[in-house]
């Protein structure tokens, strides 16, 4: 939660307490970026109007440095053009107007976090699939090499058997010729 007004941060903390989420607070953009640079954060909810770095600039920087973090804007500011520009520049998932409805706020945050977790799981499963495909490719290659080696061994054994069979056939013919000579 990023807001320069302590009363707003307290109100947001009170609304979010029943969710069981770990809530981090920052009084401004610089403090929020310091938190984000020190640990992973799933979602940033920032006020629009703050001294120093406004919410639009903060969320734009968050988008550049931490694109996997969901970004939401909390604003009581009525300039729709500035809000739309902020949403577009920071790729903000949603903006919420002040004063907010507690249930709608929690629902919006819950939906955004659910989508983020699904995207994280999709990325994890994709990486696992790529890893397993590479392992399977390696196994196929070694299996093909083993099949070739075993085929060569079998062909060599078959050649030896054919040679032995030919020798046995010659010996049989020789034996028949010798016995025929003896019978004569």
Outline type: rod-shaped
- Helix segment tally: 5
Largest sheet data: 3 strands, parallel
What string, H for helix and E for strand, traces the elements in order? HHEHEHEH
Low-confidence stretches: none
> pLDDT average, as an integer?
91
What's the number of extended β-strand segments?
Answer: 3
Largest sheet strand order? 1-2-3
**What oligomeric state is this?**
single chain
Structure description:
The protein is mainly alpha-helical. The protein contains five helices and three strands; from the N terminus they run ααβαβαβα. It has helices spanning 6-16, 29-38, 55-65, 80-89, 102-183, and strands spanning 43-47, 70-75, 94-97. The chain has a three-stranded parallel β-sheet, sandwiched between helices. The model has no long low-confidence stretch (mean pLDDT 91).
Record the SSE blueprint.
Layout: H1 6-16, H2 29-38, E1 43-47, H3 55-65, E2 70-75, H4 80-89, E3 94-97, H5 102-183
Parallel strand pairs: 1-2, 2-3
């Amino acid at each position: 939660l990023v807001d320069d007004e302590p009363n707003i941060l307290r109100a947001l903390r009170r609304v979010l307490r029943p969710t069981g989420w770990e809530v981090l607070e920052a009084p401004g953009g610089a403090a929020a970026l310091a938190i984000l640079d020190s640990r992973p954060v799933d979602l940033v909810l920032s006020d629009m109007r703050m001294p120093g770095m406004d919410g639009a600039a903060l969320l734009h920087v968050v988008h550049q440095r931490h694109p996997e973090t969901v970004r939401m804007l909390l604003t009581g500011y009525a300039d729709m053009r500035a809000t739309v520009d902020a949403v577009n520049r920071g790729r903000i998932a949603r903006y919420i107007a002040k004063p907010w409805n507690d249930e709608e706020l929690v629902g919006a945050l819950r939906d955004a976090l659910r989508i983020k977790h699904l995207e994280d799981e999709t990325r994890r499963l994709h990486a696992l699939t790529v890893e397993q495909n590479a392992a399977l490719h390696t196994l196929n290659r070694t299996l093909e090499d083993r099949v070739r080696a075993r085929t060569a061994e079998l062909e060599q054994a078959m050649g030896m058997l054919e040679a032995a069979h030919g020798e046995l056939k010659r010996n049989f013919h020789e034996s028949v010729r010798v016995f025929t000579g003896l019978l004569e």
